[in-house]
Amino acid sequence: MYTEIMQSEHMSDKTRVSYEAYQQAKEVIPGGVTANIKYFDPHPIVMKEAHGSRLIDVDGNKYIDYLLCYGALVLGHGHTAVKEAVNEQINQTGTFIFGSPHNLEYEMARKLVDLFPGIDMVRYTNSGLEATLLSIRLAKAYTGKRKVAKFEGHYHGGYDEMLISVNPDLDEAGEASTPNAVPESSGLGKEDLDNTIILPFNDLEGTRRILTERQDELSAVILEPIQSGFIPADESFMKGLREITEELGILLIFDEVKTGFRLTVGGAQSLYNIEPDITSLGKVLGGGFPVGAVGGKKEVMNIMAPDRGKDILTAGVKDDVKDDIMFHSGTYNGHPVVLAAGLATIQELEKPNVMQNLLEKTNLLRQQLELLYKNYSITMQTVGMGSIFNIIFTDYEIKNYRDLNHANMELRKQLDYELLNQGIYTKPMNRYSMSIAHTDEDIQQTVQAHERAIKLVLGRS
């Protein structure tokens, strides 16, 4: 039987240089990583090169990449169109950034307004986290209410009021229909737990009851239309949530950082035919560069307009200022190189059949993996939507965070570690993201690697 000791030894034998680099990094970087999500036992793998669908680590090991920077690289690594757009932007303008308005800000905003039903106007940030943070502040400023509701199991960035009930221990999480607010990090205050109301995903009646009880306190409901990028909201749930929030005067925020451009170029809201009041974007939008954007209805977005009040950073100015102006700024917002990369990425996805082929290849991989595990009498399903999915070892229907408790996570973990040895890369236990760079050969090799992993981990023949 395959054991954790064996998986650790196998990995260490192949990634010795990675291990040494990691130990060196720990001397000057807390935990040796620049973001906690980059860590996994016994040590993260340090990469040195990437092309298309492939990664190469510092030991020279090659991998088919299904992490793709947590889904950001929908074109794969180093796509020619993105490289050309970035080089052209720099060469034509003679600089990396202006620090002032420029034409690409309008071009990208115009594109997003055309693509996303719920977007009339746009502001840029530098990450998806910043985008959700701005979305929440915008909702609070617009409604004058201080609390926000999120769904259990949904992740919106690593800041205080959203680091709650992302991956809670079910012993602490309370009843499924009335979840408790469970902190996911030290450093959070009681006010964060008090001001963040937790909702049950895909449970419309439970959600309706909580929202109705707290309507006078709540500025907004924020959710991932596809929880964690792979558990879709039911259509009836989404439709009902939009109706409830409109009825109660609560803004609806779609966090489409993961789903924007990965289900269709118009995001989950286009597929569900739902117009949220505010949309948060990131990941794919930057074409591999750090980016975020907030879009929404004009009446909501315009409360940020600086021509209605003063710049708070201009000392000594005593202009008449309206109390309802909401301040938002950022030196690198709308970075021209980033927007050039993002526009090039969207333009590639808009070409005939590109998105369709991406979705077809994703479905092909899912179908072949499900058939493989069925042939070995292993209960498994792929769960997802668009070009993202996850592998879940249970036949229980997965509708929310708590349903994952029915899955065999230990088997998934053991297989993932062996798959790393077999040259299939994603962070263990993470979802699979596809790119247009993945080939039929990649899919075939991936299925073959899964079969080898099954034989080694479970001793099957």
TrEMBL record:
<protein>
    <submittedName>
        <fullName>Aspartate aminotransferase family protein</fullName>
    </submittedName>
</protein>
<dbReference type="Pfam" id="PF00202">
    <property type="entry name" value="Aminotran_3"/>
</dbReference>
<keyword id="KW-0032">Aminotransferase</keyword>
<dbReference type="GO" id="GO:0030170">
    <property type="term" value="F:pyridoxal phosphate binding"/>
</dbReference>
<dbReference type="InterPro" id="IPR015422">
    <property type="entry name" value="PyrdxlP-dep_Trfase_small"/>
</dbReference>
<dbReference type="GO" id="GO:0008483">
    <property type="term" value="F:transaminase activity"/>
</dbReference>
<dbReference type="InterPro" id="IPR005814">
    <property type="entry name" value="Aminotrans_3"/>
</dbReference>
<comment type="similarity">
    <text>Belongs to the class-III pyridoxal-phosphate-dependent aminotransferase family.</text>
</comment>
<keyword id="KW-0808">Transferase</keyword>
<dbReference type="InterPro" id="IPR015421">
    <property type="entry name" value="PyrdxlP-dep_Trfase_major"/>
</dbReference>
<dbReference type="InterPro" id="IPR015424">
    <property type="entry name" value="PyrdxlP-dep_Trfase"/>
</dbReference>
<keyword id="KW-0663">Pyridoxal phosphate</keyword>
